[in-house]
Specification:
The structure is a homodimer of 338-residue chains. With 338 residues, chain A is of the alpha/beta class. The first copy, chain A, has twelve helices and twelve strands. Chain A has three domains: 44 residues, 434 Repressor (Amino-terminal Domain) (Orthogonal Bundle), CATH 1.10.260.40; 133 residues, 3-Layer(aba) Sandwich (Rossmann fold); 135 residues, Rossmann fold, CATH 3.40.50.2300. The relative contact order of chain A is 0.11. The first copy, chain A, binds a DNA duplex (16 and 16 nucleotides) through helix 2 and helix 4.
Chain lengths: 338, 338
DNA sequence: CTGAAAGCGCTAACAC
DNA sequence: GTGTTAGCGCTTTCAG
């Protein structure tokens, strides 16, 4: 399939065939109201007959809008971001927009260059789960200087002048910890995440729930991990402690899953001797060695709401206040905390 | 952030500042060889000073190439397709291309409209894991009529005139079944996938391996499923059989994981009484109740190779023969077949 | 090596 | 209702 056997049909071709102006055809295509019924009918027929497809590149250049919005995520393999992407697409497609998705590989530099490219492609707006260092402002300033609306998701950057949509991390931390307490745990350890807002929020919620129950735990009960392998290692260290924790709250499901693996490997029973909680409700949680109790973040909902706000900002004439939306989490109790 | 405080810099602005023609600046930007060293230096300096960013929409319209390739997958949440996407992006980014990813939701109609949109956006090429019915040709004919190069991945469509890159499904079916046989299974059941080439190929490989070992199994040993829930149901039916299978080969990891859940729930031990195999090596396979033996499909490699072929076709002057590339699978033996 | 001319295919704004 | 006039910002082609 080298060259198009037949070059694509243009507005001009339709117009010539019908002896009308290009503008008239253009208006019909865009469903403008000011076209005669009869003319419209003929044009529509011809369009179908010649199988005309608008050229969006030309349209974008002339209209100075591309109807493309960029979505930047740190890792496409995480189903969390896949779900967000689906929520975004489902919201904007009916409105005539397309998404282009970029993977920053959890790297601020890569992310910056991805964003530059999207900007060069003239996207109408940006949705970013940013991999920038927590107090950075550079990238956001550049986007703002270009005047392109953007919405931050999953990770908060208080210094950025943008709306934010994400899970309520503190609440999730509280819910998870309270749940373990209710189930009888007295020595609750936490495997915290990387130093980004989701990890920090969940840690804060964990501490609040402990304080509210008047529980003290040794510093050694706080570990760190970012995936299943490091969660496994973290749990091994926790298991060596004396007294050993009787509850582990992992900042996400992979970390909690890795922790469970270490616990079971050590011959310790879940949930009898140690109860475990995660966050994220990844779809395989129910299939694990011991089905994992977790908290659903409402990923698709994050995508939908963020997209909605972005489109609102794009469409709005005037500047809007930068809202912060926290999605309400849902606890899902399974075997690991029975 | 409503309007750009300062309108974007254009080639024309740079040219005016320097008293050179727009063409000269354009050539410097595109790294054409025919520009004087001194001129180039000055232009480059000005570009940096004014922070010029090329407008890709205008560039695409004039050059009649967008440097965008479209990737259409049936489900973004599957990490398999996430990995493919990463492989694709990693290959084409350095060459100046961007990917736009679409999710067809396993629906041929949605896929067709996604492809139409991508075509309207003037993508330079398409990568498709197609959700069309197996013997359909309509969509492919339309793409071919437009003269846009495309490569099929994961699912084969013999009637389409396009290169194909995917896992070697028959080989995976043989490998999985042989592995179960080697581990001592004598009554091997198969939970087959939907009637698409991956499922059909694995089923064929399963049958070949059985035949080669002179094994006969009752028809009731063949079940169907597409995910963990249906895999669970399928396994429940298998467990009710007499004689009961002593090995189950699930066409993918979710189906196999669901099957394991049913088996364990019935109080049957894995691997002692029933051994289980999957395909896909999803990253959580190691965390399941019983770590799942599986076969790695080399998803990232599929993405890389498909992208490489596509770029080759785009760049090539003449038509190339439509190659078929099968990625070599790797067996990963874990607890479930010990 | 440099630049002028001529669009790419479409749309905004305003006349008729 | 319809069509005209001007581009959008860049690249192609080809003459200097």
């Amino acid at each position: 399939m080298p060259q198009p056997p037949t070059p694509p049909v243009r507005l001009k071709d339709i117009a010539r065939e019908l002896n009308v102006s290009v503008m008239t055809v253009s208006k019909v295509v865009r469903e403008c109201a000011d076209v005669g019924a009869e003319t419209r009918r003929k044009v529509l027929a011809k369009i179908k007959e010649m199988n005309y497809q608008p050229n969006w590149v030309a349209r974008s250049l002339a209209a100075r809008r591309t109807f493309i919005i960029g979505l930047v995520v740190p890792d496409l393999i995480h189903s969390f971001f896949g779900e967000i992407a689906k929520g975004v697409a489902a919201t904007i497609r009916p409105l005539g927009y397309d998404v282009v998705i970029c993977d920053s590989e959890e790297n601020g530099g890569v992310e910056t260059s991805e964003v530059e490219r999207l900007l060069a492609r003239q996207v109408d707006g940006l949705l970013i789960a940013s991999a920038q260092p927590p107090s950075s402002t550079d990238l956001f300033e550049r986007i703002e200087a270009r005047g392109v609306p953007y919405v931050l998701i999953d990770r908060r950057f208080p210094l950025a002048q943008a709306p934010y949509v994400g899970a309520d991390d503190e609440e999730m931390g509280r819910m998870a910890t309270r749940h373990l307490i209710e189930r009888g745990c007295r020595r609750i350890a936490h495997i915290a995440g990387p130093p980004l807002t989701p990890g920090a929020g969940r840690l804060k919620g964990y501490r609040e729930a402990l304080a509210e129950a008047r529980m003290q735990v040794p510093d050694s009960y706080l570990e760190h991990a970012h995936d299943d392998a490091s969660g496994y290692e973290a749990a091994r260290r926790l298991l060596a402690l004396d007294p050993r924790p009787d509850g582990i709250f992992g900042y996400n499901d992979p970390a909690a899953s890795g922790a469970m693996k270490a616990v079971l490997e050590a011959g310790v029973r879940i949930p009898e001797e140690i109860k475990v909680m995660g966050v994220g409700n990844v779809h395989y949680s129910d299939l694990l060695r011991v089905p994992l109790s977790t908290i659903d973040q409402g990923a698709a909902s994050i995508g939908r709401q963020a997209a909605g706000i972005l489109i609102g900002t794009i469409t709005a004439k005037r500047k809007r206040p930068a809202r912060t939306i926290l999605i309400k989490p849902t606890l899902i109790a399974r075997e690991s905390t029975r």
